[in-house]
Amino acid sequence: MNPWVLLTLAGLLECAWALGLKYSDGFTRPIPSALTLIGATASFFMLAQAMKALPVGTAYAVWTGIGALGTAILAVYLFSEPVNALRVLGVGLIVAGIAALKLA
């Protein structure tokens, strides 16, 4: 499979397990905890597969960027986290960084 596709899927799973941490309530809820651990394992596995073909610095930065971006956006909708100019700027910088790494 294309390493960029794997990396994108790994980043999306990072969003899922990061949000799962919230739903697991400190790993006190069994089903959300199990799903979080499964998502994290799958995310790490896909990241490792993508790193076979991509530079480690690029792959890791894109993976964390997708995870941070997706988690920040979804947290606004799922948990009513506040939106302000500085947060929007930060998310915009993450997107710009991901695009720059993809083009490099």
UniProtKB/TrEMBL annotation:
Any one GO molecular-function label of the UniProt entry: transmembrane transporter activity
Gene Ontology CC, one term: plasma membrane
Bilayer disposition of the protein: Multi-pass membrane protein
Keyword annotations: Cell membrane, Membrane, Transmembrane, Transmembrane helix, Transport
Transmembrane regions listed in the UniProt entry: 28-48, 60-79, 85-103
SUPFAM superfamilies listed in its UniProt record: Multidrug resistance efflux transporter EmrE (SSF103481)
Superkingdom classification of source: Bacteria
A Pfam family it matches: Multi_Drug_Res
Intracellular or extracellular location(s): Cell membrane
Gene3D superfamilies membership: 1.10.3730.20
One GO term (biological process): xenobiotic detoxification by transmembrane export across the plasma membrane
PANTHER family with a match to the protein in the record: GUANIDINIUM EXPORTER (PTHR30561:SF0), SMR FAMILY PROTON-DEPENDENT DRUG EFFLUX TRANSPORTER SUGE (PTHR30561)
Family to which the UniProt record says this protein belongs: Belongs to the drug/metabolite transporter (DMT) superfamily. Small multidrug resistance (SMR) (TC 2.A.7.1) family. Gdx/SugE subfamily.
Name of this chain's protein: Guanidinium exporter
Annotated source species: Rhodobacter xanthinilyticus
